Amino acid sequence: MPTTLTLPPTNSRRNAAFTLIELLVVIAVIALLIGILLPALSAARDSARKTRCLASHKSLIAAALLYADDAREQLPHPNWGPVSTGWLYDGNPNQIHDDALGPSTGLIWPYLGGDTGVNNLKLAEVYRCPSHKGPYRGTGRLASFQMNGAVLGYGRSPWSFRISMFMPIATVFWESDEDGINDANWNDGASFPTESIARNHAGGRGSTLALIDGSAYWMTVPEHDRELVRYPGRLWSAPDSRDGR
Q: How far apart are CA 176 and CA 190, in angstroms?
């Protein structure tokens, strides 16, 4: 008669459990993966935001150039000084927090595909950098971008200059510094180059801008600092002055 081998009963619950060392190893591996992936995810998110800002700048400069085509090459007014009607808004700049005052009242809104005076949240996103967070101040409530005051000689001319008067490398739009001193960056729709660019991207290493030729580009902070002392240059580009200032 054949002999049947009987194995001793096993504790299946004990065999299925993890030891403390195994749990610690798993936790360590997860922590390591998180440490590796988070910087990559952060970089990818920042790259997407930068790409969006570049696209917004291309849309804004394209709209400004289309406006100029209908205005005998004259660029839209940059909302500089007491003039209320410009590229960004139409109204009293002292009432900038009025809900009726916004990009939809500006001169280039129709050239972006919007109806004048009609708010469109999707279209308004063109005016906003996703890295520019509130609370917003002054015209920063309307847009993250500003026009270069060189468009009217930093206030020397009552009207904007024609496209053909600018150097091809002239910067028209940039992201303004969200941490500007004394809100100087947000007192109108335009600014001086010395009022600085934003440091919203790549860990504060640069910003996006748009040129008179319709292109958008990335400028690092060191490049910006060098351009601030270049007369004329990409930033100081007023056509009515020999040194662009």
A: 9
User: The pTM is what?
Assistant: 0.82
Q: What's the pLDDT tens digit per position in 22-74?
A: 788 888 888 877 777 666 666 678 888 899 999 999 999 999 999 999 999 99
Strand partners, 206: 201, 220
Instruction: Give backbone dihedrals phi and psi of 240, rounded to 5 degrees, phi first.
Output: -90, 10
Instruction: Give the DSSP H/E element, type plus range, for residue 167.
Output: none
Is 190 in contact with 148 (CB distance < 8 Å)?
Answer: yes
Cα four-point dihedral sign 186, 190, 192, 196 = positive
* Spatial distance between the Cα atoms of 189 and 144, rounded to a whole number of angstroms: 10
Q: What does the block give as tokens for 3?
A: 């002999």
Q: Pairing relation of β-strands 145-148 and 190-191?
A: parallel
pLDDT tens, residue by residue, 181-201: 556 678 889 999 998 788 888
